[in-house]
């Protein structure tokens, strides 16, 4: 028996599309100086922001993004049914301590850089399924915390290879609401979600995550089209997050070979967030990358009328320091979310 809200093999159709009623973003100085700087809500003055460690700074950023998203909607933490959040650090400590401080029933998420998409999907499922009225979600990352955990502490000044991406220092928060509780008039709605499969093409270079994640992005985007009957012409923007410049090129080429022409409408969060002059090599990465690009830039452009329908495919490299040290390859994942303005 086909589940009532399942479409095709991997896609969910929301019968009462949940609404994104507020967002907030906090970014680091490098991100604030980038091409999207004017769209972010707040840029911290330095990578410690008055804290004793980079990890404590990242947690503070995530909490600020979530609290401000609530404040914009004039809601208190007590009015929110669930908090869905995650980050890149071991045991998702930034999300855990933020949940401790907010006191909202909490589901911690780890999807690597796909965490923002995962939070949107699960939050929409909770609301459309009748289990919640309001869901608060978010994700964060920090350049110095990620480098310390996955590669080398930045204090060592290790040279980065050309294929490397720069982990975004940033946190994005969003608030989902049942459509009956959303402000009157047009708004951002989550209409479809395509859950991805883990794809591993035997890439083992931790400094080449774009190549590791691109096949998963292609697999999920194609499955979304097959399941929904839609095609690239149904979207004004298809955006991955975050493959960087190398992964974006691979994704574009693979989609073209599969018969999908998306060149004019496709981009990537990791490509948008930095200018080439900022020397990030292949662009941005990290949970905070797609979180801040989507919450600050894409959603605002949709509200301004630039895009009516967007397909966001959040991508993640599902490795850990332990798996890398043991010579494992890097599995990739991608979850796609259709967001529409009506």
Could you characterize the architecture of this molecule?
The protein has two domains: 6-180, Stage V sporulation protein AD (Peroxisomal Thiolase, Chain A, domain 1), CATH 3.40.47.40; 187-341, Peroxisomal Thiolase, Chain A, domain 1 (3-Layer(aba) Sandwich). The model has no long low-confidence stretch (mean pLDDT 96). Helix content is 34%, strand content 23%. The protein is globular. The protein has helices at residues 29-32, 54-72, 93-102, 115-128, 143-150, 209-228, 244-257, 269-272, 287-303, 321-325, and strands at 6-7, 11-13, 19-27, 42-43, 82-86, 106-108, 134-141, 166-167, 170-177, 188-194, 237-241, 266-268, 284-285, 309-317, 332-341. The strands form two sheets. Strands 1, 2, 3, 4, 5, 6, 7, 9, 10, 11, 12, 14 and 15 form a 13-stranded mixed β-sheet that branches. Helix 2 packs across helix 3 (93-102) and helix 6 packs parallel to helix 7 (244-257). It has 342 residues and is of the alpha/beta class. The two termini are 32 Å apart.
List keywords for this structure.
two-stranded parallel sheet, Peroxisomal Thiolase, Chain A, domain 1, 10 helices, alpha/beta, 15 strands, 342 residues, 13-stranded mixed beta sheet
């Amino acid at each position: 028996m086909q589940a009532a809200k399942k479409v095709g093999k991997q896609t969910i159709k929301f019968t009462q599309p949940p609404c994104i009623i507020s967002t907030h973003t906090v970014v680091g100085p490098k991100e604030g100086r980038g091409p999207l700087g004017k769209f972010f809500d707040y840029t911290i003055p330095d990578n410690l922001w008055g804290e004793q460690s980079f990890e404590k700074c990242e947690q503070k950023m995530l909490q600020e993004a979530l609290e401000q998203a609530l404040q914009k909607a004039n809601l208190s933490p007590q009015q929110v049914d669930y908090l869905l959040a995650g980050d890149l650090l071991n045991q998702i400590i930034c999300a855990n301590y933020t949940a401790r401080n907010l006191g909202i029933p909490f589901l911690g998420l780890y999807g690597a850089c796909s965490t923002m998409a995962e939070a949107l999907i699960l939050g929409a499922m909770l609301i459309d399924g009748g289990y919640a009225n309001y869901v608060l979600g978010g994700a964060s990352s920090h350049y110095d915390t990620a480098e310390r955990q996955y590669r080398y502490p930045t204090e060592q000044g290790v040279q980065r290879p050309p294929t490397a991406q720069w982990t975004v220092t940033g946190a994005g928060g969003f608030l989902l609401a049942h459509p009956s509780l959303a402000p009157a008039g047009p708004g951002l709605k989550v209409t479809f979600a395509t859950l991805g499969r883990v794809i591993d093409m035997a890439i083992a270079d931790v400094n080449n995550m774009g190549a590791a994640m691109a096949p998963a992005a292609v697999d999920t985007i194609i499955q979304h089209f097959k399941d929904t009957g839609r095609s690239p012409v149904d979207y004004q923007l298809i955006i991955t997050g975050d493959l960087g410049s190398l992964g974006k090129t691979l994704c574009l080429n693979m989609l073209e070979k599969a018969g999908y022409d998306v060149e004019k409408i496709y981009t990537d969060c990791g490509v948008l967030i930095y200018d080439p002059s900022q020397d990030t090599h292949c662009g941005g990465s990290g949970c905070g990358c797609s979180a801040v690009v989507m919450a600050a830039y894409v959603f605002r452009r949709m509200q301004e009328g630039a895009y009516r329908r967007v397909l966001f495919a959040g991508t993640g490299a599902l490795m850990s320091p332990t798996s890398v040290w043991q010579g494992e390859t890097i599995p990739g994942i991608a979850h796609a979310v259709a967001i529409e303005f009506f």
